[in-house]
Write a structure and sequence with these properties.
Blueprint (H helix, E strand, L loop, with lengths): L5 H11 L25 E5 L2 E4 L4 E4 L14 H11 L11 H12 L5 E5 L2 H16 L3 E4 L7 H4 L10 H4 L2 E3 L5 H10 L4 E6 L11 H11 L3 E6 L10 H6 L5 E4 L10 E5 L1 H4 L15 H17 L1 H22 L6 E4 L6 E4 L4 H14 L2 E2 L13 H22 L22
Parallel strand pairs: 3-13, 5-6, 5-7, 7-8, 8-9
Antiparallel strand pairs: 1-2, 2-3, 4-10, 9-10, 11-12
Helix pairs in contact: 2-11, 3-11, 12-14, 13-14
Length: about 425
């Protein structure tokens, strides 16, 4: 059923006058969502449901770009935050909750000996790079995924405007799951590489022995290993990818799911490296903000108690299987499928114009009350069987509409709203 976005469109026009792109985040902009055929503003959320400013309701499979792991407005998390807010938010000196949260992370993450906090993934990843350079006395960094918007990484992408060339040349790309390519790059930049940064578990799992071989090569060449677990942390396993694959990096970065929507991130790692912060300047006014720490403690306790990673994996496996069955039944399997990790099934577009199909899928999902990007972003609140059945039913209706449009003489004419624009692609 076609939805009205009258209020949303009006707010977009108003926001465009004072906010670049009318949003704070590229992935929430009209570059990624068809303005006029999608809600640009949400008003409230609960569990796995979101409601836009025009009153439309959706099952949300975007989850605010993955910080939601339990569900929106989780009662236990919000209760902990309300208790802390009565004591204060931020103080002129440290608060004991910083110790409590650091000790919790040290307990559950196998390689965590010391911890420092930030507010987003880019914060702590930049801290990790600075530490690695200080520890190794080398400057170059090898990357293979997405690692935030700060200069050291974004300069290596097509979105590098404003990043000096001298900074861009310090970050080099290699292919994830390709040991030969990693070895080639290490030899190419002989003894100049401070760290290899990877998302150890993401859209696709690491190949057998890839992480072990990576560690062996890095140890041999005096290169630090940094796990970017901003996305996979607490989703792939309570202790992250290190626990799942039994590999200990030197440093690791966590965020998103850590606070179930509250802004907090963490860098963890070996004491001998982390202690360099006595000289390496890493400092933030809001890094010790207590509401997010209270949220993080409540979130971690609930993830541990309910074994949330296992539940998300089981749910994702079911959702992937059922959705792919519908795709085959509707005869769209030459166009799309869902693949990758069970905890994070991703949409694969096999043929046709990728931007066109993505636009078409998003507009039809939205019509049927499903808000989804290019993957099933899952939370505990999705694990209700009725929600699963309802999701598959809504997705089936959307796919039938897509099939009908693809049969038209000129399916491009059936796109609604403004055309989508590519930002960049960094995840394989």
């Amino acid at each position: 059923m076609k939805k009205s976005f009258k209020i949303s469109n009006r707010l977009y026009g108003r926001a465009s006058k004072t906010i670049p792109l009318a949003t704070q985040t590229f992935s929430k902009s009209s570059m990624q969502w068809p303005l006029g055929a999608a809600p640009m503003f949400f008003e409230k959320a609960k569990g796995c449901y979101v409601y836009d400013v025009d009153g439309n309701k959706y099952i949300d499979y975007l989850l605010a770009l993955l910080p939601i792991i339990l569900g929106y407005k989780d009662n236990d998390v919000d209760r902990a935050v309300k208790k802390q807010i009565n004591k204060g938010v931020i103080f002129s000196m440290s608060h004991p909750i910083e110790i409590e949260l650091a000790e919790k992370l040290n307990t559950i993450i196998p390689y965590a000996e010391m911890v420092r906090f930030g507010k987003n993934g880019s914060d702590v990843l930049s801290a990790a790079i600075r530490l690695a350079r200080a520890y190794t006395k080398k400057d170059l960094v090898l990357v293979s995924g997405y690692h935030g918007w700060h200069d050291w990484f974004i300069g290596s992408t097509s979105r590098n405007a404003g990043v000096p060339k001298e900074v861009r040349r310090l970050t080099k790309n290699f292919k994830f799951n390709d040991i030969e390519n990693l070895t080639y790059n290490i030899k190419k930049y002989n003894n100049k590489i401070a760290a290899v940064v990877i998302e150890p578990d993401g859209y696709s799992p690491p190949n057998k022995n890839f992480l072990k071989e990576l560690k062996k090569i890095c140890r041999k060449n005096g290169i630090l290993i940094i796990f970017d677990e901003i996305v996979c942390g607490f989703r792939t396993s309570l202790g992250g990818a290190s626990e799942k694959f039994n590999i200990k990096p030197d440093l690791g970065c966590f965020g998103k799911s850590l606070g179930n929507g509250y802004p907090i991130s963490a860098i963890v790692g070996k004491k001998k490296i982390m202690n360099l912060m006595k000289d390496v300047f890493v400092s933030g006014t809001y890094a010790g903000e207590t509401l997010s720490m209270a949220a993080a403690l409540a979130t971690l306790n609930k993830i541990e108690k309910l074994n949330v990673p296992e539940k998300l994996s089981v749910l994702g496996k079911k959702l992937k299987k059922l959705t792919n069955r519908k795709i085959r039944d509707i005869e769209l399997n030459d166009y799309i499928e869902f693949a990758g990790n069970d905890w994070w099934p991703r949409l694969i577009i096999k043929k046709n114009n990728q931007s066109f199909l993505l636009h078409l899928l998003r507009q039809e999902f939205i019509k049927n009350g499903v808000f989804m990007g290019s993957s099933f972003n899952l939370c505990l609140a999705h694990s209700n069987n009725d929600i699963l059945k309802n999701s598959v039913s809504k997705i089936e209706k959307s796919l039938l509409n897509v099939k009908d449009i693809l049969k038209k003489k000129d399916p491009q004419n059936f796109l609604e709203g403004c055309e989508l624009k590519s930002i960049f692609s960094v995840r394989g």
